[in-house]
Amino acid sequence: MTLYDTRRRKNAIYVSLCYAASVFGLVWLAWILCALIFKGSAGLMPATFTQMTPPPGSAGGLLNAICGSLIMSIAAVALGTPIGILAGTYLAEYGSGSKLAFVVRFINDILLSAPSIVIGLFVYQIVVVPMGHFSALAGMLALAIIVIPVVVRTTEDMLRLVPNQLREASTALGLPKSMVIQRIAYKAARAGLTTGVLLAIARISGETAPLLFTALNNQFFETNVNAPMASLPVVIFQFALSPYADWQRLAWTGALIITMTVLALSITARVLGRQRIKS
Amino acid sequence: MVDVTVGVPNVDGSTILDRAKALARFKFENTFFHFVTFSAAITVLVLLSGVILSLVLGSIPAIRAFGAGFLVTEVWNPVTDKYGAAAAIYGTVVTSIIAMVIAIPIGVGIAIFLSELCPQPLRQPIGIAIELLAGIPSIIYGIWGLFIFAPLLQQYVEPGIISFFGSVPGLNLVFEGPPYGIGVFTAGFILAIMVLPFISSISRDVFATVPAVLKESAYGLGFTTREVVGNVVIPYTRTGIIGGVMLALGRALGETMAVTFVIGNAHRVSNSILAPGTTISATIANEFTEAVGSLYTSALVELGLILFVITFIVLAIARFMLMRIEQKGAQ
Fold first, then answer.
1. ipTM over 0.85
2. Is A207 helix (H, G, I), strand (E, B) or coil?
3. Same domain, A30 and A51
4. Can you give the pLDDT at residue B167?
5. How far is CA B273 from the centre of its chain?
């Protein structure tokens, strides 16, 4: 009976520790979100979205940073998605079982978790140094390199979920493989492919490290991709570490905007991904 | 490909011509598409080799100037142009160890909770909430850590730790010094929160590969939840859990922005984990744009190379482990 009691007591302690671990995880999420809303929502006024980043001591907004982030993210996704989808297609449709596909998959998984600051160094070496100056173009390239592995991974996973009977049926109708993939497999996996792109956008919209020495920063509104461009994460970095209270306030507002965008994107991606699996 | 023209009655020449044209087009498109996807896959390989090559080329001046001593020299002095990576490597390793010590038990605990204990309707929402921790950009952890978490640590937690361990020989050296709030420990703790979802979601995935009949027979023999998890689930999934941990470690080693905010950026190796330090990624983020002189830049690139090599090895081990559990699950 005592052995039984000890076992039950041990189990109770173990189970409550597991509960505590989950509470621990959730507490940080709640705390961070509350802090962001508490500190950042005060700055959510129209001026934030219509004015440029100010010099210290005067009022201003984050317009140039928000636009810069949008421009660079859109360009990076436009550049990285096709490459990612095509490479993912190769892995899922052409390369199953081949040595090359194995190596590419392995390398892609490494790139997926590689430190983003190293990507920044790489783009600095191959773009910024030859051009002689920082530019939004370099920033876009750095972000695109981060987009590619995310899209490759989800594309491959999602294409593998497409039932093989669909492929066999359309091949039996006389469609060549390229059309089976483009007309049938892509359509069947559409929600999944969208998930991949959304995840990639969520990933790059908060990336700071690769932009620090590629796109740098800019106090002014800039649409020229050959010049340095402001982005929300870099502005947050600069403003948060500054000694000026109004800059720090703007940094919190920017942080709130980014977090809400990223969380909305990842929740949408998850819902889309789940629909795919259900159907 | 099937030859469609076989057996088709030869009604008039034009149809056959159209058919031949269409087939030729199909054939071309097919080859072309195969080639395009193939080149995209090769692009991934080219990217990785490009990263390695550019880092190696960029760090040649520093390697020439400092040799292997770079790895063990603590001095980091832009004024005299003398650089050593010891402080940054030390900080990277120590913050990651702290992060792992905190995150492994908690992450696995969350996975056990989600797969064994949690009521069914709550599993999905709690799982998503934990995974959202991975979605929060690292700069957000940084700003939160610097303005909210570090001051609290400094005021309430660190003085307690210092006085508690002050009389314990050995540990008093690890936890000594004034409470700065920012420092190696704070950075490690925030890293732990950031990598928690990687450990918990991968552990949860591999827990799902345990055949239900194994768990059921253990429960049927009268095992408690703790005994089922400890004797059946964890031994069955050990490789997968290690893979998840290595993946999280890879993330922790390379994490930049959160660490840059809270580590204090001091180039020195100190025995106390409460003291400010630096990591490889924080050093690069802080100093790269201000680096004047080719040797300074090159030293920073060499730091990047070291970081990349370390994370590459860790991530490769992670993938290898996860591949093994995938094969096991497929059998």
1. yes
2. coil
3. no
4. 82
5. 22
What does the pLDDT read at residue A246? 87
B38 domain-assigned: no
User: CATH number of the domain that B206 lies in?
Assistant: 1.10.3720.10
Q: How deeply is B152 buried, as exposed, middle or buried, from its count of CB atoms within 10 A (0-12, 13-18, 19+)?
A: exposed
Chain A contact for B35 (CB, 8 A cutoff): no
What confidence category does residue A43 fall into, taking pLDDT thresholds of 50, 70 and 90? confident
pLDDT tens digit string along B172-203? 888 888 888 899 999 999 999 999 999 999 99
- The reply to whether B234 touches chain A by the CB within 8 Å rule is no
Give the total number of structural domains in chain A. 2
With tokens 């020989």, the residue in question is B169
Model pTM? 0.90
Best of B116, B132, B249, B320 to substitute, by most chain A Cβ atoms within 10 angstroms, is: B132
Size of interface A-B (CB pairs under 8 A): 265
**Position A24 pLDDT exceeds 60:** yes
Query: Chain B residues with CB inside 8 Å of A233's CB?
Result: 137, 139, 257
Other beta carbons within 10 angstroms of residue B225's beta carbon come to 18
Q: Are A15 and B117 in contact (CB under 8 A)?
A: yes
Residue B4 lies in a domain: no
pLDDT bracket for residue B171 (50, 70, 90) = confident
Domain that holds residue B141: 72-330
Whether residue A123 sits in one domain with residue A197: yes
Number of domains in chain B: 1
Minimal CA–CA distance to B258: which of B150, B152, B107? B150
Residues of B in contact with A14 (CB under 8 A): 225-226, 229
Both A158 and A174 in one domain: the answer is yes
Domain that holds residue A26: 3-43
For residues B303 and B311, give the distance between their C-alpha atoms in angstroms, rounded to a whole number: 12
Record: contact B139-A101, CB cut-off 8 A: no
Greatest mean pLDDT among A206-220, B7-21, B297-311: B297-311
Residues A135 and A271 reside in one and the same domain: yes
